[in-house]
UniProtKB/TrEMBL annotation:
This is Fatty acid binding protein 2, intestinal. Belongs to the calycin superfamily. Fatty-acid binding protein (FABP) family. GO terms for molecular function: lipid binding. It holds the Pfam family Lipocalin. Residues 10-108 form the Lipocalin/cytosolic fatty-acid binding domain.
Length: 109
């Protein structure tokens, strides 16, 4: 499963555009597989589905300049934590799930 996820990640050409208006955010995700607009307000829980169909519920908060998301899987209640941070002009997105950490870097266009 991890190899499949790595291959999908390598070939999905994911692009993310984040727009902020105070505590409200619109995140536009576009990839080879889908295009999705996600709207959320800091601290307010919302439903989200991953590209593989996994259903999540959770919210984003800020921690300094970072966006920190905590989401629970609807099927098993396990928590996925995501951090988005700008480092040297790139957005670093870190994931943590069941003790497994992953990182993805998005370059500014």
């Amino acid at each position: 499963l991890e190899n499949m996820m790595e291959k999908l990640a390598a070939h999905d050409n994911l692009k993310i555009i984040i727009q902020q208006d105070g505590n409200k955010f619109v995140v536009k995700e576009s990839s080879t597989f889908r295009t999705k607009d996600i709207e959320f307000t800091l601290g307010v829980a919302f439903d989200y589905s991953l590209a593989d169909g996994t259903e999540l519920n959770g919210s984003w908060e800020t921690d300094g300049d970072k966006l920190v998301g905590k989401f629970s899987r609807k099927d098993n209640g396990k928590v996925l934590t995501t951090v988005r941070d700008i480092v040297g002009g790139e957005m670093v997105q870190s994931y943590s799930y069941e003790g497994v950490d992953a990182k993805r870097i998005f370059k500014k266009e």
